[in-house]
Amino acid sequence: MGADHGHPPSSRRTVMAGLAVLVPLAIITLAGLLWLWPDGKVSTGTAQSGEQSSVQRVTGTITGVTLKKCPAASEGAPQPDPATCGNADVRVEGGQSVTLRLPSGPGAQHFAAGDDVILLRDADGEHQISDHDRSTPLWLFGAAFALAVIAFGRWRGVTALVGLAVTFVLLLTFVIPGILEGEPPLLVAIVGASAIMLLVLYLTHGFSLATSMAVLGTLASLALTGLLSYGALGFARLNGITDDSALALDMSLKIDTQGLLLASIIIGALGVLDDVTVTQAVTVAELAHANPSYGFARLYRAAGRIGRAHIASVINTIILAYAGASLPLLLLFSIGQQPLGDVLTTPVIAQEIVRSIVGTLGLIAAVPITTALAALTASRHHPEEEAQEPPARQDEQESFFTPHAHQHDPAQHPGERPARHRRRTRT
Predict the structure, then answer these.
(1) Whole-prediction pTM value?
(2) How far apart are CA 250 and CA 327, in angstroms?
C-alpha cells in the first residue's frame, strides 16, 4: 500500500522525543520528593494544640436514652428539638458505663439505644458525646466499592485500586504535611501532582505508548492550568481566604492561602485531566489498530470527534459538581434575596467560578494536545504524506444514515431495485 515507503515509522522519533521529556520529568519529580519530604516537625506555635492533645477520642455504645422536657428558650432564640433533650446511658470501650447529657442546640444529631458513638474524654476523665461512630458503615461502603471495581475491571480494577491507594498515601504523607510544615503550597502541589500522575497512570494502565502520551498530555495541560490559575487569581484579586478555615490557617500557621488555592486547583484539575488524556490516548491506539491505513490526520480527526463529545459531558459534570458542593451557600444567598451580580462577585463564589473556568480551559486543551501526541505515535507514516494519500472511501465519507452502494448492487441482485429508487416509489 505504500504506507511505510521503506523508512522507519515516524512514531519512533516521537517516542524518543517523549522519553526525552518523561525521563527528566521523573528524575526532577523524585528529587523534589526527596527535597520537600516532610520530617514530621509540624509546630502550630499556639497553646491550643497542647490543650487539644489532652482530649482523647474513645468509642462507646448507647444502651438507653431518657428524654426530658426541653427548657424554655428565650424570646427570638431557636426552639430546641425535643429529641435532643435528655440523657443517654453509654457503655464506654473497656466496660465502663456512664450517663451523659445528649447534645442539644441547633443542628444537634439524634441518638438512640444501640448507636455506636464517639466520645471525648478530657484530662479529668469526664466524657462527652461528640458524634456517631461511622467506621463500620464506611468500611462496608469501601468493601462494596472495591468489590464492584474488581468485578467489572478485573485485574485492571485491582491496579486502579492500588493507584487510588498510592494517591491517598502521597496526599496524606507528602502534600498535606509538607504544606503544614511551611513549604510553598504551589511547589508541593506541583511535585505531588507529578508523582501521582507518573505512578498512578503507569501503575493503572501499564507501560505503553498510549500511557506515555497520556502522561505527556496531562503534563502539558496541567502546566497550562497552573499558568492560567496564577494569572486568573491575580487578575480577580483573590487571596484564597473565603471562610473561617482559611482564615485560621493564615493566622495560626502562616500558610500562603493564595498558594494553597493554586495548589487545590492543580490537584483538582489532575483528577479530571487524567480521565480525558487516557481516554484520548487509548482511543487513538484502538482506532490505529482497527484501521492500520489511517495516518495522522485521519486519526486526529476521528479521535477529536470523540474528545469533543467527552468534553461536552465533562464540562457539565464539573459545573454540577461545584454547584452541588456549594448548594447550602447558594441557598443562603437565595434566602437573602441578594442581586445575582452581588452574589457572583463575593469571594467564595468568585473563587469557585475562577476554579471551574480555569479547570475547564485546561481540560479543553488536553484533548487536542493528547490526541496529536497519540496520533503521531500511532500513525505509520508522516503527517505530510496525508496529502498524497488517496481520498477516503465513499463509505467513510457518507453519514451513518446514508445507504451504501455495495449493499444494493443491481448486478449482484438483479431482482432488487436500488434503495433510492424504492424510496421514490414509496413516496
Answers:
(1) 0.68
(2) 26
